[in-house]
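ok posting inputs for the fe (ii) ion job
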Amino acid sequence: MIYFCGMSCATFQEVFSNNSGVVYQCDLESCFYVEFEGKRAKYSVRNLMQLKRKLDHFKIEEIFAVDSLNPSGVEIVTISTTNYCYILNPLQIIRFRELLDQTFFNLHVNQVLKDCLQYAVLA
Amino acid sequence: MKDLLRVKSLISTEVESLLNSQVKKEAHSCAQYLAVASWCDQNGFDNSADYFFKQSDEERTHQLKLFKYILDMGGHAISPEVDDIRIEFNSFREVFEQALEMEIAITQSFKKIAAACHKEQDYVTMEFLNWFLKEQREEEYKARRALELFNIIGEEATGLWEIDKTIPKISYTSED
Ligand SMILES: [Fe+2]
Ligand SMILES: [Fe+2]
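and the output
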């Protein structure tokens, strides 16, 4: 797939997509483009990991608890060193998690394949 | 497709999180030994208090060693929250029983990390862990020796005073 990013023409590769979004990897810029429910953001590896950590940190059952400290049920996610901010309801948190879980799963598969084929590390 | 995870970091997410939980355990040991030093001091066991102050410092060194390794490998080192520190003990002996228990738990924990490294053929981290595995030999040895003093010297009459006097003499010399 060929897309245009900034001034340069780069090859984007889809890491994973489902009906809530899509994650592309850009080898040229060594980064990821994450599209979630129509919102697009560019993340470094570090930032993408941070986003995943933050999403995994939420306890959905606590959001729904009768004595919840957060009766609105809405969580705000910001990623340091970027200007991105998500305001997510519990369903969106679950969907976003799913998107990133699958993304990281596929990245790991890519890693295992690379290890086998390119470096012959794992027998 | 480039392996961007690998470009970023030598260690896998799993090993990184195991190392981070070890950082937390070392921080806990550091704080726990400090609490023990406080108890010993307040109960008149000055030599043991000194011994545990030193142990606490060592645990802090262990914590930093792991912390810096994670960073050097490109990982995300997490400064841990420390909780669950025991500050009261029923006897002088119980202090050492707890110390041994803690060191055994640490050894087991390193064995678990080593097993994970073997599984994913992370020999780089394995080589780093060797230092800690060797260190645990000393840690368990010293804790066990200290506890044995209670049987050898006995707790009657001036026994506890004698035990406290002997604690600083415990050392592990075997280098092989
Ligand atoms: Fe330690
Ligand atoms: Fe120790």
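notes: The radius of gyration of chain B is 19 Å. The longest helix of chain B spans residues 13-42.
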